[in-house]
Write a sequence for this structure.
């Protein structure tokens, strides 16, 4: 995700070429081992900070997920897989027997569903937008991209609050509709799954547009003329010529929307009104309110695994794509 | 895509409705924040009617002591986190892009971008568990550490991108002209990098200023930042004051991002 | 210490360069031996990829020396990093610091060497006058044309008065007209500054017009070292003869040696007297001659001492006319005859004519 992922966090057209920009002509396939301490010393602080304050902490919760919860939060150092079992089963307080309980599975299922819907919605809006931008004259593209990127940098909390503000019973949408007599009384928009989905789309839409744009930018539009030349129709060409070429961008964009949506906390928290929990809320809750750290850790590890699996398949796909384009 | 193509050729590339979707996309992106911004100037509490222009919610927000202290905390943390993250990221970018490629370079890059790839909520709870495990009390310093780590890739990417674009020859030219390793960096590479470093710094600053999820978990009592304060106010009830603070924060972000973007463009055109 | 005319400025002894290691090892230079004299305009000439840049970068200190020795005025450079060598480089793309003005660029080396403010300023002015850019001192490099940037790079490299100036294809980024003008200018500046230049190029015309001496390289090895005339007139082997200028390389049988000459037989049986380059094959064996097309001329067929041939094609190229001919055995040669004003071409395709060689035109080469 680095190549395209780079695009959204850097303003508009500073895109990262991970292959190192111009590769020097002599670069051999197997890079030499690094024995230069000056260079190691340079990236050691960054590696050290991330390693100590992020990688080790993840190791810590990985361990916590196999421990017994302490009474007032924290953990008791005793090995158990109960935290993971709890996802599917519930232990009877008196008989100690495990019985199936789909509540947590349900939350994961709903989160995945919610994220998938948001991703599809982003794709439906994002693809035409990216396509439209890519067919603008070059001077205009930058400004379009800039406009699309800017909202990403606005505080996520504030953006989500803005959506809530808009969707509330007394919010501008409802009052507008009532003023015009379209509806009698406010329709319930806020605190619904729809609101969460809307919030997610609103939050991550730029992530869809930018990578698709990046792959369209490299697209040779004369291929389309070749298509017309062969009597293909407009929409056939879109499907058969354009889509395959920009597929990597579409996949990248979908991941960039899907992953943060899956682990989102703010949108369900604010727009779901605390009733439509998603994975993120479930995890946070274990560390705040209900204080079951092992269970929260296990939930986090499961989320992490889902995300890494998604990234892994994406990376595999990218590589496969590269290989076939060489072949 | 030369300018000489006939308009019929160009129109073949157009799809009916795509323009409409693109415009709708922009509309979608901007309407909510614009509505918030507009209502922050509404003289009356109502959000349905316009009671005239007023800055009173801003005045109210500014005089709120909780918001004052949260703003101060946010600024201190954002400045410190962005400074550390930018220094560390600049050094890392030097190590990664100057000189030959080496085995394991992809691994180093992966580690640096880990904060971007891991869901924020996971980072948040992992940091919390870790801080408590090693006996830290939660407070501004834990927020600072978590923000610094989280900001590193945001500062790193624009800096490394720019650094990759600077030919090795500049470094060699400096050394050829009797500058040692340090002076070659100080007088040649660093000035050439400055726009990108500023740009990376500003991005890191905004990321820290805006962060809510990680902060909400690793913040101790009394170490409230602006997003936390806003969240606290929302819990109590929607007040136009929130619109005012939001609008300000929104403005800060936009100014910083635009500036960062412009600076990095100046850097490249130079 | 007097640095006399023939003092050795740079000594390159058995220098080998191997890039990489293990499977990916690649030997870029195979034992180069070279002595460059004080105040010489010395050119490394060879096709791209032959190792010119590598050698230059080793002298500058940017590449390590795998084997062998490089010394500057008797001092071994092995342990000095680039910033300690009294050697400056004009980079191929100039590498002018974009954030500094022209004057600051030129002053950079002096500042780093610790020269004082006033001294630096005087030297910068002097250098900018030398390259005729004194009016542009306060501009940024990006505000200059390619030729001007090139001169700034030159001034910057000359300012700290290096003992040796290295130039890696400095003219290749310029267009043809400018390149030709800069050749003369560069040569003039070298004379005025009194500094040894090592100039790298793949352009033989550039090398021939500017250099005191030229080293022709191919595939990491020296082929020939000599002045322009030597290189052109007396190439030592097929590579040099072929690479420099245009030439015919007919295969011959070496009949016998007569003093410092050889008698060789062409494919059609005619015998030629030719000068001999070192390492040529022994009598009785086969070898190659180099005969420059402009050293051939036509006479009437059958004339005493001429070789019978038939003209296949004529190509008018302005200053002269090129004739493609074939000899009795079918072997082909190219002949160039200078055009006289207003005259019709005296020979045309299909004519049978006699071919005459100027004295010393044929040279027997080593392979
Ligand atoms: N850093 C390097 N690593 C590996 N091989 C190199 C490197 N630099 C040059 N080479 C190889 O060494 C040979 C000579 O290169 P170079 O000196 O650049 O030639 P020239 O300047 O004559 O064109 C080439 O085959 C090139 O591929
Ligand atoms: Mg070269």
């Amino acid at each position: 995700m680095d190549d395209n992922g780079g695009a959204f966090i850097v303003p508009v057209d500073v895109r990262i070429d991970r292959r190192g920009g111009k590769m020097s002509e002599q670069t051999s396939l197997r890079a030499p081992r690094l024995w230069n301490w000056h260079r190691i010393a340079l990236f050691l602080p960054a590696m050290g900070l991330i390693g100590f304050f992020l990688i080790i902490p993840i190791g810590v919760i990985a361990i916590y997920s196999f421990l017994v919860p302490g009474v007032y939060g924290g953990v008791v150092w005793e090995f158990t897989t109960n935290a993971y079992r709890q996802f599917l089963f519930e232990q009877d307080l008196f008989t100690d027997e495990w019985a199936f309980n789909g509540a947590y599975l349900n939350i994961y299922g709903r989160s995945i569903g919610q994220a998938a819907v948001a991703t599809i919605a982003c794709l439906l809006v994002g693809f035409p937008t990216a396509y439209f931008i890519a067919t603008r004259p070059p001077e205009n593209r930058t400004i379009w991209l800039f406009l699309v990127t800017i909202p990403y940098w606005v505080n996520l909390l504030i953006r989500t609050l803005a959506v809530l503000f808009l969707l509330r019973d007394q919010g501008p949408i409802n009052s507008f509709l009532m003023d015009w007599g379209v509806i009698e009384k406010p329709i319930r928009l806020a605190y619904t799954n729809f609101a969460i989905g809307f919030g997610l789309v609103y939050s991550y839409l730029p992530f869809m547009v930018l990578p698709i744009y990046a792959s369209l930018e490299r697209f040779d539009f004369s291929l389309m003329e070749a298509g017309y030349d062969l009597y293909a129709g407009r929409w056939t060409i879109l499907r058969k010529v354009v889509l395959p070429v920009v597929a990597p961008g579409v996949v990248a964009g979908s991941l960039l929307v899907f992953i943060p949506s899956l682990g989102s906390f703010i949108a369900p928290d604010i727009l779901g009104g605390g009733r439509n929990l998603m994975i993120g809320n479930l995890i946070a809750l274990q560390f705040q309110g209900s204080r079951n750290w092992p269970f929260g850790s296990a939930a986090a590890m499961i989320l992490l695994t889902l995300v890494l699996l998604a990234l892994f398949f994406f990376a595999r796909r990218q590589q496969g794509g590269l290989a076939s384009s060489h072949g | 895509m030369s300018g000489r193509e006939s308009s019929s050729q160009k129109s073949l590339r157009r799809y009916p409705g795509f323009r409409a979707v693109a415009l709708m996309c922009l509309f979608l992106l901007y309407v909510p924040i614009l509505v918030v911004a507009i209502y922050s100037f509404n003289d009356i509490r109502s959000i349905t009617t316009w009671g005239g222009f007023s800055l009173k919610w801003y005045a109210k927000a500014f005089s709120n002591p909780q918001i004052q202290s949260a703003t101060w905390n946010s600024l201190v943390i954002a400045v410190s986190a962005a400074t550390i993250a930018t220094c560390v990221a600049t050094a890392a970018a030097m190590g990664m892009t100057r000189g030959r490629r080496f085995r394991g370079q992809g691994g180093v890059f992966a580690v640096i971008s880990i904060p971007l790839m891991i869901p924020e909520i996971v980072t948040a709870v992992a940091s919390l568990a870790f801080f408590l495990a090693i006996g830290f009390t939660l407070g501004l310093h834990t927020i600072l550490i978590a923000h610094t780590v989280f900001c590193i890739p945001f500062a790193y990417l624009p800096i490394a991108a720019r650094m990759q674009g600077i030919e090795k020859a500049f470094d060699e030219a400096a050394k050829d002209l009797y500058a040692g390793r340090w002076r070659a960096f100080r007088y040649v590479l660093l000035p050439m990098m400055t726009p990108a470093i500023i740009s990376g710094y500003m991005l890191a600053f905004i990321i820290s200023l805006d962060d809510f999820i990680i902060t909400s978990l690793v913040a101790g009592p009394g170490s409230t930042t602006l997003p936390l304060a806003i969240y606290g106010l929302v819990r109590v009830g929607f007040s136009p004051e929130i619109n005012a603070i939001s609008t300000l924060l929104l403005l800060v972000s936009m100014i910083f991002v635009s500036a960062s973007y412009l600076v990095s463009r100046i850097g490249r055109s130079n | 210490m007097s640095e006399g005319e023939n003092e050795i400025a740079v000594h390159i002894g058995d220098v080998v360069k191997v890039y990489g290691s293990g499977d990916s090892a690649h030997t870029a230079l195979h034992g180069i031996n070279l002595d460059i004299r004080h105040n010489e305009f010395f050119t490394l000439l060879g096709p791209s990829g032959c190792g010119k840049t590598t050698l230059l970068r080793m002298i500058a200190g940017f590449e390590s020396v795998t084997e062998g020795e490089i010394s500057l005025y008797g001092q071994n450079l092995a342990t000095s990093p680039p910033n300690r060598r009294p050697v400056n480089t004009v980079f191929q793309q100039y590498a002018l610091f974009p954030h500094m003005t022209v004057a600051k660029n030129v002053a950079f080396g002096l500042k780093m060497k610790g020269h004082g403010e006033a001294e630096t300023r005087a030297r910068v002015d002097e250098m900018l006058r030398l390259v005729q850019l004194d009016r542009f001192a306060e501009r940024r490099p990006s505000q200059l044309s390619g030729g001007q940037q090139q001169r700034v790079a030159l001034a910057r490299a000359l300012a700290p008065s290096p003992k040796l100036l290295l130039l890696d294809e400095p003219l290749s980024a310029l267009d043809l007209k400018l390149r030709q003008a800069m050749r003369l200018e560069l040569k003039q500046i070298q004379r005025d500054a009194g500094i040894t230049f090592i100039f790298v190029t793949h352009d033989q015309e550039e090398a021939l017009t500017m250099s005191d001496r030229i080293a022709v390289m191919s595939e990491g090895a020296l082929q020939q070292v000599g002045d322009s005339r030597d290189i052109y007139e007396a190439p030592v082997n097929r590579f040099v003869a072929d690479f420099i200028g245009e030439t015919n390389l007919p295969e011959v049988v070496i009949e016998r040696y007569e003093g410092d000459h050889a008698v060789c037989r062409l494919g059609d049986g005619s015998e030629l007297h030719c000068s001999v380059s070192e390492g040529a094959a022994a009598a009785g064996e086969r070898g190659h001659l180099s005969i420059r097309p402009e050293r051939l001329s036509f006479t009437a067929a059958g004339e005493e001492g001429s070789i019978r041939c038939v003209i296949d094609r004529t190509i008018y190229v302005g200053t002269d006319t090129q004739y493609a001919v074939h000899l009795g055995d079918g072997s082909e040669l190219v002949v160039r005859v200078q055009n006289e004003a207003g005259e019709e071409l005296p020979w045309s395709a299909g004519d049978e004519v006699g071919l005459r060689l100027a004295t010393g035109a044929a040279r027997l080469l080593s392979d």
Q: What stands out?
A: Residues 175 and 206 of chain B are 37 Å apart (CA to CA).
